[in-house]
Specification:
Length: 290
């Protein structure tokens, strides 16, 4: 018999002020849509009353004695879910949970449905916008297609489609980015639902530049795991162009020897990177077939 139930997984770290609002919103969604649902709040080492507030509002609380990270908390909730269909959302009241029904309708046809954030709160300041654009371009490079919102924390999926990825997914804030890229690179189907994004309640736990660097590290790991030749082609292209630039500069200056040698070495390194790329791609293909 098909499982018609639904599990909500909410990771929370020091969200005592926001978690009651989140759980009240979920209760209204469950009642209005007639859902058979359980709500799991993973208390990720909170030092405030997050766990007590969640329990008082009827949630099933999984308590982690230390702050293990956003992704690790989500993994605990996913593994503990009683139902196949899972919806995750943050515990800061920033997501419009009334869109759950639309995510679930799309989930009948897709493996993963992501709430694509819109509005000024999502794009933040003019300072962070160029970095967000660079991040989106990097994800596009990794997966080979446009991804409008790779790291939205409001999404629906089935547990059986994510289980094989859990051991290699990021344990921190890039959990959702790793999920999106792994689904796309493995041939799973992904859809997006435009949603308004609200200002969070309480203090943000995200450190923008630190988490951007970690995301970059994660994307490099995903490339090496699924499509390593892309990374090596990029390195080869940079090295080759630098070599051509240095050789060209050598022809226009008096101190030609040093520039010419440096340019020649960069060009040779480009060839070496390309050979490493073909080798890594061969190993990745053998790993997938085994």
């Amino acid at each position: 018999m098909a499982d018609s139930g639904l599990t909500f997984v909410i990771p929370a770290h020091n969200e005592e002020a926001a978690i009651p609002s989140v759980l009240e919103s979920l209760r209204r969604v469950v009642q209005s849509d007639g859902l058979e649902a359980e709500i799991i709040v993973v208390d990720d080492g909170s030092t405030d009353g997050t766990a007590a507030a969640a329990a008082a509002h009827g949630a099933r609380v999984i308590t982690v004695p230390m702050n293990v990270g956003y992704g690790a908390a989500l993994r605990r909730g996913i593994e503990a879910a009683a139902h196949s269909r899972i919806v995750i959302a943050d515990g800061d009241a920033s997501y419009p949970l009334e869109y759950t029904g639309e995510l679930l309708r799309r989930l009948e046809r897709f493996d993963l449905v992501i709430g694509r954030r819109t509005g000024t709160t999502y794009y933040r300041s003019l300072l962070s916008y160029p970095f967000r654009l660079l991040y989106l371009l990097l994800v596009w490079f990794v997966v080979g297609r446009r991804v409008p919102d790779p790291n939205s924390g409001f999404r629906a999926f089935r547990r059986e489609t994510i289980e094989e990825f859990l051991p290699v997914m990021c344990q921190g804030f890039s959990f959702t980015t790793s999920m999106t890229t792994l689904y796309l690179l493995s041939g799973r189907t992904v859809d997006y639902v435009a949603i308004p994004y609200r200002r969070r309640l309480g203090r943000s736990k995200i450190k923008f530049f630190r988490d951007m660097l970690r995301t970059g590290q994660l994307l490099c790991s995903v490339i090496l795991l699924y499509n390593p030749i892309k990374l090596f082609i990029l390195l080869a292209a940079v090295s080759f162009l630098a070599g051509v630039g240095l050789v060209s500069a050598a022809l226009l200056t008096a101190d030609r020897a040093a520039l010419f040698v440096s340019g020649t070495l960069c060009t040779l390194f480009g060839g070496v990177f390309l050979c490493f790329g073909f080798l890594a791609d061969l190993l990745a293909n053998l790993r997938r077939r085994s």
